[in-house]
Design a protein that fits this description.
The protein is of the alpha/beta class and about 725 residues long. The chain has 25 helices and 27 strands. The chain folds into 4 domains: about 5-165, Rossmann fold (3-Layer(aba) Sandwich); about 180-310, Beta-Lactamase (2-Layer Sandwich), CATH 3.30.450.40; about 325-465, Alpha-Beta Plaits (2-Layer Sandwich); about 480-730, TIM Barrel, CATH 3.20.20.450. The strands form 5 sheets. The chain has an 8-stranded mixed beta barrel, surrounded by 4 helices. It has a 6-stranded mixed β-sheet with strand order 2-3-1-4-5-6, sandwiched between helices. A 5-stranded antiparallel β-sheet has the order 8-7-11-10-9, with helices on both faces. α7 (about 185-200) runs antiparallel to α9 (about 285-315). The longest helix is centred in the first third of the chain and has 38 residues, at about 140-180. It is elongated.
């Protein structure tokens, strides 16, 4: 076949694409050349060409600048036939760069033509600026020109489709995001109609319906349907909408007409449909994007149903059937009125409930909880509110005149049935009177819990009434704990040392490590204040270990200077509860190279009585390792002497309370008793708080072995201690 034959055989049409998308009625082609004859020849050669049933429409520019100006105003050109050399040798290439970079038009297809082969662009330029084709004008026979043009138009069409799909997906994503988080079914339905109409590019005129209990109800829609929400579909003032929705649900498929479209939703197999009025039939792309969006709508409906189910269950305790904490907080907030001041809130805590659960099993524990509920419901029929707000805590709101704490104790005194078990149960109450109710239900509950926690801490009564000063004290406690935690982390705590003296030669034999907490104003916060708070906050274990390490370092430092002394360190209850405590002490001594005999651990009677046998076991292990043990503040607690005999101790410390009034009449009786007891048990005694010579003489006459107090030395910082030791301690 000759070149001329090929010119007569033109591929002017191709098969229809699967999705026909019409942007204009023509394919717009811009011819750019400084030779007007080229314009005429090109337009003549391409006349009559159809592509996908659309003809070509030509525009003309005679320079690179003119082309740029034209494209700035007309961005929807499909193909540019562009001469390279015009007003300048690179005018065409400058135009290409402007199209891609300045106009940011990446869809337009560019075919470069030149009558001067020597001016061909480099391959890098062709790739970088997405140039479809490059031909010399002598190469472009009619058939080649048409072939290049058809390929360029096809590429342009594909790029436009990709743009349309990208914009459509952006709409779907935006629409899906807009309905996320909506939990009201009617608001959700209104939003679905609005967003679906936007995807279909039509006004938001439509309605969403669903079948519930065999009745088709209006759930939401555009403005004209708002008055019909909650009504049956037959009451709509739109016969066509009624017909289309009913027909779609019967046939269970999409319905499209020239004027409207009806989609079927598949959420939880519930029959529902959305009807939208159209301006024009939707494109295939719009239908596809609508279906994608409605998939998210189905998920949204499922989530709303789940949310409503959860909300219904969120206010009810599954085990007891009572209202739960969430419901209680909402309802009790409504009682913070003048009328509510006659009410009273009881928090009822089951004592040692965890022991029952652990010992008898969770099933018995659950039966006990149900038994408590039955007792409360039977005995308090006039209660305003009865809720379960914790694992073993119930709340009762009732008129003050109907219930006093003594009466509640009587009601709960009888044993409670839990399966085969008849259990006598103790309770603790936190009580908040109506005048202290807050508009915040959480605040009212917090007030009652403050009273409950105080009642648990006291042994006299099993109940406490909330008072505002309780909260002030709690806030103060929390502030102290927070500051202590911060100062400990910042290494602001100090360890001072108070010397201990041998009464026989008045030489220093040891010292007690004392924790000090300096405040920002230069004063010191009393250990009597912060040590109990550190125990409550769980800080004392870490702080206690730090004190032990500081004491060991100080002992080793003095020993390196030739002074071997005993270092006494206090131990708290939480430290003994630490299963690794013994090993921690041993490891610390090994770490600093301290002889165990140079460490004395001081425990109070209250520490011993917390868990006597466990403490005895721990102390025995430490004693076997060579560590000395002393009972601190002896005589101030309520320990049994039988435990004293079992404790592996070497020292008894006489509390300052039994020393301060010596030598007044009978003031030294208890001190005398303790010294005598120590001698009979072959234990050394050390008296604390000695401030006068009379006190010292009296204790020496009793036979007390050692002394500690301001008469000999106040607590000393590290440098002061070193100087004191050098003056008052016998070198090894």
């Amino acid at each position: 076949m000759t070149e001329a034959d090929r010119d007569d055989f033109l591929f002017l049409q191709e098969d229809e694409p699967e999705q026909e998308i019409q942007y204009t009625e023509f394919w717009d082609v811009l011819i750019v050349d400084d030779d007007s004859e080229i314009h005429s020849v090109t337009q003549l050669a391409l006349s009559g060409v159809l592509f996908w049933d659309k003809p070509l429409r030509f525009s003309h520019a005679y320079s690179g600048k003119e082309a740029i100006d034209f494209l700035s105003e007309n961005p929807n050109i499909a193909v540019v036939l562009l001469d390279v050399v015009m007003e300048t040798d690179d005018a065409g290439l400058i135009a290409v760069k402007h199209i891609r970079e300045t106009l940011n038009n990446n869809n337009i297809r560019i075919i470069l033509r030149t009558g001067q082969p020597g001016y061909a662009p480099e391959e890098q330029v062709i790739r970088e600026y997405d140039i479809n084709d490059y031909k010399t004008k002598t190469e472009l026979t009619r058939s080649k020109l048409v072939t290049s043009l058809v390929a360029a138009i096809r590429s342009y069409e594909q790029l436009c489709q990709l743009d349309q799909q990208s914009l459509g997906l952006e709409k779907v994503i935006s629409a899906s995001k807009s309905i996320l988080g909506i939990t009201d079914i009617h608001d959700f339905s209104n939003a679905v109609v609005k967003q679906l109409a936007d995807i279909l590019a039509c006004p938001a005129l439509g309605v969403l319906c669903a079948k519930t209990d065999n009745e088709l109800l209006v759930l939401g829609g555009s403005a004209e349907y708002q008055c019909s929400i909650g009504l049956g579909i037959e009451q709509l003032d739109n016969g066509r909408a009624i017909h289309q929705i009913q027909n779609s649900l019967i046939q269970k498929k999409l319905q499209i007409t020239e004027f409207d479209i009806t989609f079927i939703l598949n959420a939880n197999e519930q029959q529902s449909a959305v009807f939208i009025e159209l301006l024009a039939p939707p494109s295939q792309a719009q239908l596809q994007f609508s279906k994608i969006f409605l998939t998210n709508v189905d998920v949204g409906f499922d989530n709303i149903k789940l949310f409503n189910n959860l909300r219904n269950s969120a206010f009810k305790d599954a085990l007891t059937g009572l209202s739960n904490r969430t419901d209680f907080v909402e309802k009790v907030a409504t009682y913070a009125t003048k009328r509510g001041q006659s009410s009273r809130l009881f928090l009822i805590d089951i004592s040692q409930f965890s022991d029952i659960n652990n010992g008898l099993g969770q099933d018995i524990g659950n039966l006990l909880l149900k038994s408590v509920v039955t007792r409360l419901e039977d005995e308090l029929p006039h209660a305003t509110l009865l809720s379960r707000i914790g694992a073993d805590v119930f709340a009762v709101v009732i008129e003050k005149s109907l219930l006093e704490p003594e009466r509640l104790n009587e009601l709960l005194h009888a044993p409670l049935r839990a399966g085969e078990h008849l259990l006598p149960i103790d309770f603790t109450f936190g009580i908040c009177n109506g005048e202290h109710f807050n508009k915040s239900g959480l605040q009212t509950l917090k007030s009652a819990y403050i009273a409950l926690n105080l009642a648990k801490a006291k042994s006299q009564n099993n109940y406490e009434f909330y008072l505002p000063e309780m909260e002030e004290k709690m806030i103060w406690r929390l502030g102290i704990i927070r500051q202590l935690r911060q100062d400990f982390a910042d290494n602001k705590l100090k360890v001072w040392y108070q010397p201990q003296i041998n009464f026989k030669n008045l030489k220093m034999i040891g010292c007690e490590a004392l924790l000090r907490w300096p405040s920002s104003d230069g004063t010191f916060i009393s250990p009597a204040i912060f040590v109990p708070l550190a125990e409550d906050a769980g800080l004392i274990v870490e702080i206690g270990q730090w004190v032990l390490e500081q004491a060991c370092m100080q002992q080793k430092e003095l020993e390196s200077q030739g002074y071997r002394i005993r270092m006494a360190v206090n131990v708290s209850v939480p430290q003994f509860r630490n299963p690794n405590y013994v090993q921690q002490v041993k490891s610390t001594l090994d770490k600093y190279g301290v002889d165990p005999s140079c460490l004395e651990l001081e425990v109070t009677e209250s520490v011993v009585m917390d868990d006597p046998q466990a403490v005895i076991n721990v102390l025995s292990e430490l004693k076997d390792y060579g560590i000395e043990i002393a009972i601190d503040d002896f005589g101030t607690g309520f320990s049994s002497l039988s435990y004293l005999q079992k404790l592996p101790i070497s020292h008894i410390k006489i509390d300052r309370a039994f020393v301060k009034d010596i030598p007044e009449k009978d003031a030294g009786a208890i001190a005398e008793l303790i010294v005598s007891l120590g001698k009979k048990m072959n234990l050394k005694t050390i008296a604390e708080g000695i401030e006068t010579q009379e006190q010292a003489d009296y204790l020496i006459n009793l036979g007390c072995d050692e002394a500690q107090g301001f008469m000999y030395s106040k607590p000393l910082q590290t440098q002061e201690l070193t100087q004191f030791v050098m003056c008052n301690c016998i070198m090894n």
